[in-house]
């Protein structure tokens, strides 16, 4: 019995090693620039004054088969308010990159990601706590290695209407 267990353990380790060697190109490559960095963006000013800042922190899931992310608002005055927590994952059946996240108010967002040249198009539905849904699209475009622009559109009256555009900049290591 001990020999059988040892054989299974050794054989399993060999299978994992052979899969690692024969790995396909990552489906996450278009999003890899986000990983292991903290990004900071500033929302537009509003009628009451300066808008909040927003941070995004993304990292590989523990099994390296997804990208976890969290975002936080930084209010004028420095107060941090958690905003979203989510995950990007590859769906092998649909052959598509998916994402989902929840926000601090309890809504659930689910959608897909596709590349259009350098821009990552996120098409998604936001389901509010009361069950109402809305169609939204985010267009994330890298601006070199240290910045990206996130343009968010809402589906209204049969067309995409820009809601907000935020430029994020990569923060130095150690900044959270």
Q: What keyword list fits this structure?
A:
1 helix, disordered N terminus, 176 residues, 52% strand, mainly beta
Task: Give a quick summary of the entry.
By secondary structure, the chain is mainly β. The protein is 11% helix and 52% strand.
Helix-and-strand structural type: mainly beta
Mean pLDDT: 87
Gyration radius from CA atoms, angstroms: 20 Å
Helix content: 10-25%
Number of helices: 1
Outline the low-pLDDT stretches: 1-23
Strand content range: over 45%
Largest sheet: number of strands, sense, barrel closure = 10 strands, antiparallel, barrel
**Main sheet: which strands, in order across?**
1-2-3-4-5-6-7-8-9-10
Outline the structure in words.
With 176 residues, the chain is mostly beta strands. The chain has 1 helix and 10 strands; from the N terminus they run αββββββββββ. A 10-stranded antiparallel barrel has the order 1-2-3-4-5-6-7-8-9-10.
Write the layout of secondary structure elements.
Blueprint (H helix, E strand, L loop, with lengths): L1 H20 L15 E6 L10 E8 L6 E8 L5 E12 L4 E8 L4 E9 L2 E9 L5 E10 L4 E10 L2 E12 L6
Antiparallel strand pairs: 1-2, 1-10, 2-3, 3-4, 4-5, 5-6, 6-7, 7-8, 8-9, 9-10
